[in-house]
């Protein structure tokens, strides 16, 4: 009886740790190098709302823009002073389709990128891991980077992130890669 209990406990521990797995971060530079070296073997997705991309910028290094959350312009979030955002109900299906288009599977490397890395980058990567994808990472500090805490540029996103790392980006989005419902 004791070996059975030990086996069951071991199985439960492994199963619970697999469910608690969190996505690991990568830097913009690490992502750029990986895209250059293994671009055909990974899916790099920008998970921002396409309107945000239109105003902030875009890198053509991404395979596709698949928003994790979409802005709902009919609802206002008083606490944050912004429009409400809801999870894109088709996010997983759209990621699956993008993987299939590249001949990849849910075990292939997926890298997500949002504006800052924390609001949608990491949550979108964790969301995919929770739904059976096995190798998902997110870009730390995202596309635009984090805000400066002091000095003349306090509050501006002028440090780290893709945009501030000297990597290629543009104010124009690639219409073939941008999300369209």
UniProtKB/TrEMBL annotation:
Q: Which Pfam families match?
A: Rhodanese
Keywords on record? Signal
Task: Report the PROSITE patterns cross-referenced here.
Answer: RHODANESE_3
Which positions carry the signal peptide feature in this UniProt record? 1-20
Residue ranges of every copy of the Rhodanese domain listed in the record: 38-171
Q: What is this protein called?
A: Rhodanese-like protein
UniProt lineage = Bacteria, Pseudomonadati, Pseudomonadota, Gammaproteobacteria, Pseudomonadales
